[in-house]
Amino acid sequence: MCGIVGIFDLKEKREINRELLSKMNESQFHRGPDEGGLHLEPGLGFGHRRLSIIDLGSGQQPMLNDDRSVVLTYNGEIYNFLELRKELEGLGYRFKTHCDTEVILLGWQAWGEACVEKFRGMFAFAVWDRNREMLFLARDRLGIKPLFYAELNNGQFIFSSELKALKQHPLLPREFEPTAIEEYFGFGYIPEPKTIYKNVYKLEPGHTLTLKRGQVAYQPRQYWDVRFREQPFNSEQEAVEELLARFEEAVKIRMMADVPLGAFLSGGVDSSGVVAMMAQNSTDSVNTCSISFGDPKFNESQYAQMVAERYRTSHRVEQVDPDDFQLVGQLSGIYDEPYADSSALPTYRVCELAKKQVTVVLSGDGGDENLAGYRRYRWHTYEDRMRSVMPDVLRKPLFGFLGQVYPKADWAPKIFRAKSTLESIGRDSLEGYFHSVSVNSNSIRSALFSEKLKKELQGYQAVEVFRRYQNNAPSDNAQSLVQYLDIKTYLPGDILTKVDRASMAHALEVRVPLLDHQLVEWMASLPPGFKLKNREGKYIFKKGLEKYLPNDILYRPKMGFAVPLGSWFKGPLKEQVRQSLLGETMTDCGLFDRQFLTKMVDQHQSGLRDYSAPIWSLLMFESFLKSDRILP
Q: Cα(181)–Cα(589) distance, rounded to whole angstroms?
């Protein structure tokens, strides 16, 4: 895993500032502490920070071809590079290294822009082809590896693995994008392709971008999308066996490394399944790590231990202090823009723990999105059935009224907290799903934002992100549609962003077998009932893993990384919350309603309402504002 940066002059071949390029590159030192390199020529500069994983002695970047007409800077892993190497050798190409980097370099020469369709892996890379006067950028199909870019007023195009590298450029536009603020407070992250800044973008997953000097306009091109086209199966058992075979193969090809390798083991279905497959394909003991929590409601360490004992892994576990909030102030420096998933805290800690043992880990991310593992899929399909039995002219006003008058009973047992469900059923399917996943409801965002920000938004709402993807959705099945939406938004914007930044902060590479694009395509072809059946998510996956894992692992309630925000904000972080949300940073920015901020803090700290999610998203935004002022 690595970090890449680049500066390309769109207008002419002006000299690139070497000192600036180096500064941008070194801001990502944590992504690749092993080696660093720069390549400069008239009108172009590439930088690279390397974390050595395969072919440790060679493969330095930026890498050039024999006649130095093609230059590559690359972050990621191509798992089928040995197959592609043979194919390229058959075409007459000769290799100087044993790494996957050279496969991309020569693959570009052989196949041009179509090379991305050959690559199986996670990647973000840039190729400069001097003979074609062309700069080509690409990001992997699922968005495992990040890529940011911007065009500057001086005609330079800049790109990098993290936004912090672009921020080193003095001409980067730093004006906030109002719709990105609305999306952040809706989703808890800023979905692709936007960033917090106007005219600064993330290249979307499964997209490429081609630029030529003198070109006035350019547009990202999509080269891949997941299609939910159901395929016939002779039996459920046939599908179970094929899923397991494909899953094991996806794990196996990700076990190639010239450095110590292991796995995250939370004790959940997905990570336990990955460890089981690793154990099947390793002669040595698998290295595993997990963290435990003091609160038994959130502690999965006993289940991780069960898997570790069953497969005799070399297991390492450390307990996280339930009041481990020292990282709160550091998160803005790790994520570079507002990011409100509080599980970033324990994720950072488990990456820190893993790095003590290994350089590469396999994770179980992606199983929930692809195999309908989240509880919200179950609730959404239930709510959609409710919508279908009543005409809109009756349902919307009736449930809208019930949702409005039903009390917000945060203090009550869950069975009595029906307000959110009633509100959701009163909306159309897409708005209902957005309501269920949003970290701040429409009403809270409306009360939270200042009149100035509302005017700038001109009625724009974050649900439009879903509507954009709905227009291209490959299925009208309610369950498949929301899985597709999550694959396009939540997976790259939240889950993969969280893991990439937390792992790279420790120079740790994370590989994701359940996001192998060939496996993802096949899982998308499964009938929805194979994924969510009789209220059981990941049904077919769990059936297949029954011979590898005990039922206590497979069929217990999902837990995940939980952080006790509510108690923090009324206890050890009480004063910090008041100072941050009601201080001059939030007041002076002109984005929020001071009166509502005060009401929210007072009601949460008195126990009248639970505003944990809004307060956390505001804390992260305030922390970002402070850090953004410090940077050049």
A: 12
